[in-house]
Amino acid sequence: MSSQEIKKYGVSDEEQLSYSENLFWWSLGITLLTVALFISARMGIYQEVLYKTHGKYPYEALYYTHLLPLPAFAFLYKNLYEHWLIAVNSTPLPLPSYLSFISIPSIVFYLLGNVLTQYLCISSVYYLTTECNSLTVTLVITLRKFVSLLFSIVYFQNEFTLYHWTGTALVFVGTVIFTQLVPSLMGMFGEKIGEKTKKEKKKTK
């Protein structure tokens, strides 16, 4: 936005600064996501090499990849403690009358549910890395994220913009290309046509 446009539309210095800050954080977020994507792809290839060299031990890999980063959370102990107090002091879950003697904070319950589902998800991903190549694993994870996004849009009634449709089309086309669905369908269709022509030739003879 030029200085003339700022004067024309009456954009203040604070609004211009806010726009610049938003642009900076948006660019930083896109950069981090891009870097994380490349690192994740490289890690998938590295895992594939490790499994071929040292054998397939998905749960051991899962254990160490989650155990080794734990000491780093010591630097966030204050923040973790504050949020744990918030979770413990949250509104108790409404339980049936015969369970009225039990008081479960709602956030703690949701946290346990999140931990359980995350464990099921990540353990399945690590097991998948031992059975499929890294590209297949990346595709499956992308599809899982895509389904989660669609579910959140439907459940929370979020707006489905043109960008969402574009992403949907890209995911769908990428999946079709990767699974080689079109060539296989063409092959099946060609085989059926070939069988029909053979039958017709036999009838004519």
TrEMBL record:
One Pfam family it belongs to: UAA
Subcellular location: Endomembrane system
Residue ranges crossing the lipid bilayer per the database entry: 23-41, 61-78, 98-122, 134-156, 162-189
Cellular component terms per the entry's GO annotation: endoplasmic reticulum membrane; Golgi membrane
Membrane topology: Multi-pass membrane protein
Gene Ontology MF terms in the entry: UDP-N-acetylglucosamine transmembrane transporter activity; UDP-xylose transmembrane transporter activity
Chief localization: membrane
PANTHER family from the UniProt entry: NUCLEOTIDE SUGAR TRANSPORTER SLC35B4 (PTHR10778:SF4), SOLUTE CARRIER FAMILY 35 MEMBER B (PTHR10778)
Protein name per the record: UDP-xylose and UDP-N-acetylglucosamine transporter-like
Species: Diaphorina citri (Asian citrus psyllid)
UniProt gene name: LOC103521510
